[in-house]
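Appendix B, record 7
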Amino acid sequence: MISRRIINFSMLAAPFVLRSLVAHADETDPIVGQDTPFQQLAFPPIDSIDNEELFGYSPPTEAQRSKAAAIINATPKGPTAFDVAKSFITRFAKSDPDAISQWPAPQAWNPLVKEFFSATSLRVNNDMVDWCAAFVNWCIERNNKKGTNSAASQSFANSGILPRVDTPKQGDLVVFTCYDKQSGKSLGIGHVAFFEETTGANTIRVIGGNQSADGHSSIISERQFLTTPFDVHRHVGGEYVACIYKLNGYFSIV
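Structure tokens (predicted):
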């Protein structure tokens, strides 16, 4: 988060996401919420956010911008938004994972991640912003469908644009919501990703952005999640708060 403007937006709109640890999941991989503890990126200290040089918020080179533009231009437009999302994993997860990852300090910000926010009303100037909702919206728009135009994960559950479905099919959206452990109230934060398949009685596999994998703290990845409630700690308002993550529901792209 490079400026106080962006930090303030994050506190208000809460486009936060759930982090995970490994990509290319199969049935033997750790499951978020069951085998894998919650993980979250470390952001710069609050009193140092205006010092761009120390924390790697330098702009990308022209070569890096050109590479990101080439990736965008080569991304398919379908057949579905799910296929758009999965194409990033197919093309880069093995051969060039950095291309689809948030670049940690002291590197520059990834212009590909920044581009995903073109599908939202939020304009960012780096990649140190939670981007799961931006990625989903970008994939939906790439498929010539209408998303929520929001950088907040909960917009997919609360906007009324997407119908809720009881039994998901591949390509539907999965929304998780974080609740305060003491009051039980929603914190307005969570995660959104594309549903791929059911992998067990209480587990599903999703494809999403801003999920961790193979040493990358924030990358487009394939991951299993527990669908029953599980405890986490979330970074909210500068503090780690005890929370419960719950599956909010499944939503169809229309």
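Remarks on this record: Strands lie at 164-165, 173-180, 186-200, 203-213, 216-226, 230-236, 239-251. Residues 4-44+55-251 form one domain.
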